[in-house]
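User: I've been going back and forth on whether these two constructs are worth ordering. Before I decide, could you fold them both?

Assistant: Sure. I'll take them in the order you sent them. The first construct and its structure tokens:
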Amino acid sequence: MRVALKLAYIGTEFHGSQIQPNVETVEGELFKALRNLGIIESPKSANYICAGRTDAGVHALGQVFAFDTDKMNLAIPRVINSELPSGIWVWAHAEVPLSFDARRDAISRHYRYVMSGREYDISKIREASKFLLGTHDFENLSRTNGEKSTVRTIERIDARIDGELIKIDVVGNSFLWNMVRKIVTALSMIGKGVRDTDWLLQMLNPDIYEEGIEPAPAYGLTLLKVNYNEKIEWIEDSYSIRRASEQNQKRILRHRVMAEVLEELISHE
């Protein structure tokens, strides 16, 4: 049988999602948990497939992965979470067809970037984001990683103010390496008045214009959701969700305290 799981993680605690030697990664911890529980013998034998990779420092709420197993009674969130570090948690599962491919069957992915809103003109960001919609060559707004094509389709970009923050939601069929973070950099430059929409249109025409820009910091980016055409009957685990909420409330408190400590350290009082 084949199972799909929804996974969340705090990216700053891991060296990216993809397994790598000698560093802690999300997949490395996940594979260890699944093997320890006897759910799979190896990722290859279980036909393990993930919806996509995230860079070091990037977070996820709705990452999806799937694998074959004959231990469906163990392949549930609360059991798997017992073997995972607190920075990773599974919160929903579903039985899916044996042909289900978490990556290739995905029709879109939804990312959110959160950044300080003090320095930017939100109206300029919203206006510029319209030029990114549709199908374009994003070579200037990505870091190529051997892809045959840098053409991608953006379905939606929403930018809104939330207190002192700006939240930018980007939905597309698929994304290149650093693509969302470089889009955020471009929109930020326009929001500051450093660049304009004519420059952005040039950036979308790499055949005649080439410029490299730095990606926005990884810690502001979260993979919120992966969408599929077929109807997947997700079963959410309320205990796992509640447990993750309790653990993250402790993290929130710690960061709030640290923010105040840092304010005091630079106040010279």
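The second construct, handled the same way:
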Amino acid sequence: MSALTYAGRTFRFSVDNGVVFHNTYSADGTALHYETVAGPAEGTAEDVRLHAAEVAPGVFLVGWTEASGMTVTHAMNLNAGTVHAFWTYETPDGRVGELHTGTLEEI
């Protein structure tokens, strides 16, 4: 695997549903600090451990589990500045999943 080129960088991730995150990746690419800067959960932040793999040059599959039990997977294309995201979470009616797209901008 080549270098995790997202490591040590911070990106603004703007999701198609209006939610915006600031995602800061650790220098070794194994951890993420995210802050929700727009949307219903604005003001929330968390540090998570990452599972990551480069699946094509500049394209990374990155996943984690949040303290709430929400699971998140990003297919991050640093060449195009895009993300395909899939997350799951519990509701009173059971676990649901959502697929979203978004853009990345280094900040």
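Notes on the second construct follow. The chain has one domain: 10-106. Residues 23 and 55 are 20 Å apart (CA to CA).
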